[in-house]
């Protein structure tokens, strides 16, 4: 494992990775911790902010060009930008089951699922983790 590919990447790629990894850490903490507490809300708002930054920053990363500079991963980023506010709205309206389900889907699909694709050969995080 070496951080040099990430450290030499364009700034948008570096900050995208940092926010996504921080969101992953907070997401794991959030899933494991008690729900409905002040800590849950504080961690949740941090996670929401990190997810939004990671999603927005992805639109300036064009490593896979499937359609006019964009890829299916960008569709996942757009889905994230739409669903994060909906999931927050659910919580604020007291629809806790819907909130939990939406946030869980966002964690697994938009964060973990997309993260798996970054580990493929030729991708920067693949180089960081596996050296290829």
Walk me through this protein's architecture.
- Helices cover 73% and strands 0% of the residues.
- It has helices at residues 4-7, 11-32, 38-58, 72-92, 96-117, 124-130.
- Helix 4 packs antiparallel against helix 5.
Helix and strand arrangement:
Blueprint (H helix, E strand, L loop, with lengths): L3 H4 L3 H22 L5 H21 L13 H21 L3 H22 L6 H7 L2
Helix pairs in contact: 2-3, 2-5, 3-4, 4-5
Task: List the defining traits of the structure above.
mainly alpha; about 130 residues; globular; about 75% helix
Please indicate the percent range of residues in DSSP E strands (runs of 2 or more): under 5%
Q: In sequence order, what are the helices and strands, one letter per element? A: HHHHHH
Spatial extent as radius of gyration: 15 Å
Structural class, by secondary structure, is mainly alpha
Major beta-sheet overview: none
Mean of residue pLDDT values: 93
Count of distinct strands: 0
The portion of residues assigned to helices is: over 70%
SS element count, helices: 6
Q: Spans of 5+ residues with little confidence (pLDDT < 50)?
A: none
Q: What's the domain count?
A: 1
Shape type: globular
Distance between the termini: 10 Å
């Amino acid at each position: 494992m070496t951080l040099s590919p990430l450290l030499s990447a364009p700034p948008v790629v570096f900050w995208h990775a940092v926010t996504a990894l921080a969101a992953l850490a907070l997401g794991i903490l959030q899933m494991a911790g008690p729900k409905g507490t002040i800590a849950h809300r504080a961690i949740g708002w941090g996670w929401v902010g990190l997810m939004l930054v990671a999603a927005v920053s992805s639109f300036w990363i064009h490593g896979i060009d499937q359609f006019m500079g964009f890829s299916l991963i960008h569709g996942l980023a757009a889905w994230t930008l739409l669903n994060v506010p909906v999931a927050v709205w659910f919580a604020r309206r007291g629809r806790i089951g819907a909130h939990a389900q939406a946030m869980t889907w966002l964690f697994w699909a938009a964060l973990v699922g997309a993260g798996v694709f970054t580990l493929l050969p030729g991708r920067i995080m693949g180089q960081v983790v596996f050296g290829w």
